[in-house]
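Here is one chain, start to finish.
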Amino acid sequence: MENSPPEMWGSKSEKHYEGYVTDQISFSILCDQGHTSVVLLQVMRFELLFDQGISALRKGNYDSAVLRHSAAREKFFKFYCRVVWLQDHGDCSLFDEYWKHLRRSERQVGAFVATNLALRATSDFPKDLQKLKKGDTLRNAIAHSGKIPCLNEAKEYAERTYEFISKYCDQLKVHFPKGISKETLRVFKEQSANIHDQLGVSRNSISGTTVSVPTSIGLNHGLSAERKSFEEVLATDIGGKYMYPIKS
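Its structure:
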């Protein structure tokens, strides 16, 4: 602000409100004038979960970090398979019927493996997956036995997750851009349709908008060559809450 000309400062009525993300990947804001606004974040669930894990890691909540990154992995597996399906299909109703039989995480990993095998997209996939799954014992010990992980354990788990998801996001961008577009549009429509029910308000009683926010994974960004290193990601406070200027 100090180095910017006054005309770039915005109006005097501009204020900042803090919003906490809900399960619909959105947050609501009540301004000083009593108006409620709902903001939908244009991010995929696995991106948000990963950044929440990074935030937990930076704050020293190592068990939460591992569990968030584990959830990000599972959500990415489903996202990957759905994007591949949508590349050449109009909707995902049949896909969803099949996915109902894959409730357990190991089955979802199997679906991801089968999809990648069918694509024959990369020869080093088995090695990548083996490296990713090295942390499964850690995750299970935290979730089921109450293990308290140390910094290095949580950091290694996060780095493996980051490298894997980033690499296979790039694969989708190169080979399945149409599927990505269809899936992101579907998700935003679904979230928009459900947000009013979640808040318990009518569609006409609140205003809404969508906001594109930066994420560590950066699905909407370029390929990995343009991405931050894991150490840079760890040093960046993106996390599970965002601040936006809202004009009242």
